[in-house]
Structure formats: structure tokens, C-alpha cells
Amino acid sequence: MKFGIAVPVDKAPILKKLGYDYFEPSFGALGKMTDDEYKVFCDDVAKCGLIPEAMNMMLIGGLKVVGEEVDLSKVKDFLELTFARAANVGTKTVVFGSGGARNVPVGFERAKAYDQIEDFLKMAGPIAEKNGCTIAIEPLNYASCNIINTVGEAAFVAARVDHPAVRILGDYFHMGDNKEDCEGIYAFAHRLEHMHIGRHVTRLYPFIGDGCDYTPFMGNLKKAGYNKRVSIEGSFNDFEADSAKALELLKSLD
Predict the structure, then answer these.
(1) Is 224 in contact with 207 (CB distance < 8 Å)?
(2) pLDDT at residue 236 tops 90
């Protein structure tokens, strides 16, 4: 497996020094950059020695894919620009968490929400594919979003979309908050594209002996033959020290 951390490019040189394989910045922020800001980003990527093989936070800035305010043409324009930019710096996976974009408004029909998410992903999948990227649908905890909360539900949506560039993600932090069994990542391993990990409750970086049991999570990935990326996503106290301890944990379970 490859290991990275969800951080902006300014922290990537530290990850390179520690032995990480990639870093995971914000896709949404990339799309909001001016051309000049994007050029600086590309220069920083070239200097840091790591490729942003994955990106998260797919839709930010008020873009919606569920509800009465959806404008898919606007979302499509954003994705066309941003996937091209991401591919240019070597990105292969983009995480569709974006709870604010997909949250179901009060009183809105849930079946229609699934239809809208399907429509969005059927539009987004081909854009990702032509740029050599894959979308990973991220299940979020119930406090963060009210739709696509489990690995099984993400797999259900991916099956509905039925596009090779639309796959799923498992996240240890969200699964723990939802009391979701880690067996789910084995059961739906054929659809897994990417993984996130962070400590239960606090979402701090994971350490050996921090009170969480990461063995079922990583063990089910190994049992399934998963050999793609696992990104740490969360908070830290001392970035370099915490990142070093987190990599020690992941390597001990790989």
C-alpha cells in the first residue's frame, strides 16, 4: 500500500522527508485558484518531490448536487477545469465527500436525492476518466451528512452509476463514528479505490498505542488484497512528529 496525508502543498516537503508516498490536497481549492495561483501550485508541486496522487474536498464554495438549487452545468464547468488541472500534476483519485454539496434538505424526497447524486456522478465519471482519474465516493458520518453514510451505501450508489471511473472509499474515522463494522471494506473491496484513516472521535493522526484498534481496518484491506492508497486525514499537534508516528503505525500494519 501507499501512504499519504491530506495536507496542502506547503507541508509536502516534510512528508517527502519522512518517507510518505504522496500528499492529498483539496480538489475544490484547486478549482478556485486563478491561473497565476495554479502556476504557483504547479511550481510548488515540482519542488516538493511528491505527487498529489489523490485529492479530497471535491465540491466546495456552494456547489450543490442535491436539492432545489442544483445547477449541473455550473458543476460540469467546474469539474472540466479542475480535473484537467489535477491530472496535469499527476492526480489519479478524487474523493467525493462534500457533505455540504450532497446533504439532503429538510423535506426533500430522499429517492430524488439518490437520483440527483446518480445524475451528478454519471456526468462526472466520464470527465474524470478522460483525465485519467477515478472518483471515490466517501461515506460520511451521520453528523456530517445525511446520505451515503456507510461503505455499503457508497457501493450501492456506485453500482447505480455503473461507470468504471466511479468507485468508493472507506474511512476509519467515519466508520467508527457510525459504529460500522470493518468487514464492510472486505465485502465491497472490488469497488474500493482509496482509503482514509484518522483516530475515532478526536480525528487526530493515528499512533501506535493511542487507544484505537486499527487492526480490523487494515487487516480487512490486506485480506482483500487492497494495494492502493491510504491517506491520513485529520488534526495534529506537532505536524512533523505526529506524521512520523502515524507512518510508523501504518507501516507496522501493512
Answers:
(1) no
(2) yes
